[in-house]
């Protein structure tokens, strides 16, 4: 019985390590933050509970509970509970509980 639990535990550890190994190179989970980027530059995420997603762009997020995503643009978010999304444009947010959308502006 002990042997069976040991094998199950080791197998689970190997599976988790394998899944984490296939994540994008700059995907970092720190303090419950998620940072995913594909393209020419990366995201800078500092704080807790943040999500930054970039496609051919980089987002800069500082604070807690922020969401920033950009396609062909970069968002600069500094504060808490902000939402920024951009398509071919960039948003700059400094404060709390703001929402900003940009579309080719």
How many alpha or pi helices? 1
Order of SSEs: HEEEEEEEEE
Which residues sit in consecutive blocks of at least 5 with pLDDT less than 50? 19-32
Number of domains: 1
The helical percent reads 10-25%
> Biggest sheet: strands, sense, closure?
5 strands, parallel
The 3D shape can be described as elongated
- Report how far the terminal alpha carbons are from each other: 64 Å
Strand content: 35-45%
Q: How would you describe the oligomerization state of the chains in this entry?
A: single chain
Overall mean pLDDT? 67
Structural classification: alpha/beta
What's the total count of β strands? 9
* Strand numbers in spatial order across the main sheet: 1-3-5-7-9
The radius of gyration is 18 Å
Structure description:
A five-stranded parallel sheet has the order 1-3-5-7-9, with no helix packed on it. It has one domain. It has one helix at 2-21, and strands spanning 34-38, 44-48, 51-55, 60-64, 67-71, 76-80, 83-87, 92-96, 99-103. It is an alpha/beta fold and 105 residues long. The chain is elongated. Residues 19-32 have low confidence and may be disordered. The longest helix has 20 residues, at 2-21. It has one helix and nine strands. The termini are far apart.
Gist of the model:
This protein has 105 residues and is α/β, with parallel strands linked by helices. Helices cover 19% and strands 43% of the residues.
How do the helices and strands line up, and which of them pair or pack?
Blueprint: H1 2-21, E1 34-38, E2 44-48, E3 51-55, E4 60-64, E5 67-71, E6 76-80, E7 83-87, E8 92-96, E9 99-103
Parallel strand pairs: 1-3, 2-4, 3-5, 4-6, 5-7, 6-8, 7-9
């Amino acid at each position: 019985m002990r042997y069976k639990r040991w094998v199950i535990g080791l197998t689970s550890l190997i599976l988790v390590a394998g899944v984490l190994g296939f994540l994008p190179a700059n995907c970092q989970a720190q303090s419950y933050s998620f940072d995913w980027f594909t393209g020419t530059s990366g995201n800078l995420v500092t704080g807790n509970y943040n999500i930054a997603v970039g496609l051919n762009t980089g987002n800069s997020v500082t604070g807690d509970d922020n969401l920033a995503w950009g396609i062909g643009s970069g968002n600069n978010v500094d504060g808490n509970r902000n939402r920024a999304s951009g398509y071919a444009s960039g948003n700059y947010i400094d404060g709390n509980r703001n929402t900003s959308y940009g579309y080719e502006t």
